[in-house]
Amino acid sequence: MKRYLLTAFVICFCLLASPAAAVQEPVDRDVIAKIRDEGLNRSQVYETFTHFTEDIGPRLTGSPAFKTAADWAQSKLKEYGLENPRLEAWEFGRGWALDKFSIEMVEPRYMPLIGYPEAWSASMNGELTAAPIFLGDKKQEDIVQMRDKLKGAIVMSQPIQTSFERADRPQPTLFDTPVAIGQPRPPAGPAGSFITPQNMARMLRETGAGVVLRPNRGEHGTLFVLGRDNGEAALPSVVLSAEHYNMIARMIQRGLNVKLRVNLQTRFLTEDKNSYNVLAELPGTDPALRDEIVMIGGHLDSWHSSPGATDNADGAAAVMEAMRILKTIGARPKRTIRMALWGGEEEGLLGSAKYVQKYLAGDANKAARDKFNVYFNLDPGTGPIYGWYLENNPAVKPIFDAWLEPFKDLGSRKNILQGIGNTDHLSYTRAGMAGFNPVQDYADYDVRTHHTNMDTFERVKVEDLKQCAMVLASFAYHAAVRAEKIPVAPGK
User: Fold this and answer.
1) Is 238 left (phi over 0), alpha (psi -120 to 50) or beta?
2) Do the Cβ atoms of 349 and 429 come closer than 8 Å?
3) What is the per-residue pLDDT across 396-425, written as a single tens digit (0 to 9) for each?
4) Which of 414, 377, 389, 375 is nearest to 181 (CA)?
5) Three-state secondary structure string covering 79-103
6) How many whole angstroms separate alpha carbon 167 and alpha carbon 446?
7) Distance from first CA to last CA of the chain, Å, rounded?
8) Is the model's pTM score more than 0.85?
């Protein structure tokens, strides 16, 4: 008996003293089972996603469609029974709307062309049918001599496109060693340009070009279409598919008589210069912790040439569904769980940056920042949540590994120590708080869908939306009931 008791004591002592036991992270399997049951069997994420992509469509910041999406999201969050669903306005600038656009080749043969206006493009003075002027092989002094010909003309401003987007970022969860994180460096611009794009834009503004056409780095009819407000310097500007742009340029170089017909009608919107963030809460229940905040979020805005299915209707829908699940199952987090759908992400993380600046950053917000726990963002990529980018914070790895494990049967794999850029969690990490974004799928994302006219409904699977919502709900809940706050990366 003494020998038995001694052996048992040694075993217990070793277990208690082992590092694995010391860092064992609690996982509430009962709550996870409820999250999975609700998320798999009574999900509403598909209806939310398709409302954003099909009923509303593109949600350019500052557009009426974005405001419609924000208003609808607020009404649904109220319907879910969440606390204080609201819109928070912040100043953005003038909006933009596309009323009409067409572009065709009419000589030497008829052919509709694939193109899309840049956002905040100026409007044309009516339909224009004319021979395009190709400047892609001209020097600056040659263009100066052509100034009179450029006024009111259809101008092709760039060389023939020879470099294309042909590589997606690597999937880091498939490698045992670190890989480059984020979108690959854009390919080099077209070869043979004699004038910088900035000088070209200035000269075309000064000459009063009728409409400017340029190629893009997409292939197979894919258009990477962005835009910015150039104020009074804005020109009518159209991005053509590289194949069609190059075809027309070659025809001109061969001496063929080419004519195009272009019509572009747009409006600048100045009545409401705000954009909006959508927020709501699931209140905490612990009197000592309920003022601490766990946040989840993603951006609601998109670019304008597609409904932004993967960037970021899927993320916005999953965030809303995660909150609905937690409310529906009667989750009782100790800390308050707050959600946000951001505006203006595509123009530079503007909505999240405005929120952090107002409520969390700087000396005046130190008390609120001390009560802030963690922000989980959902944005780049599509497909399931494979894991999380840990922002070079090894202290969170055992925590996130434990929380991820229950979803391995639904596609989760592992967490990645490195960080990722260019999305809204950076607004938090830059202010010294914990912020994370998941690892998702990138197959055909960088080459086909990200910021293109091909970011459509077909790029997203409903099973992945469900999985993302469940993982997000579980991580938010576990962060909100954890005894300690999520550790912040060293140096933050």
Assistant:
1) beta
2) no
3) 999 999 999 999 999 999 999 999 999 999
4) 389
5) HHCCEEEEEEEEECCCEEEEEEEEE
6) 7
7) 54
8) yes
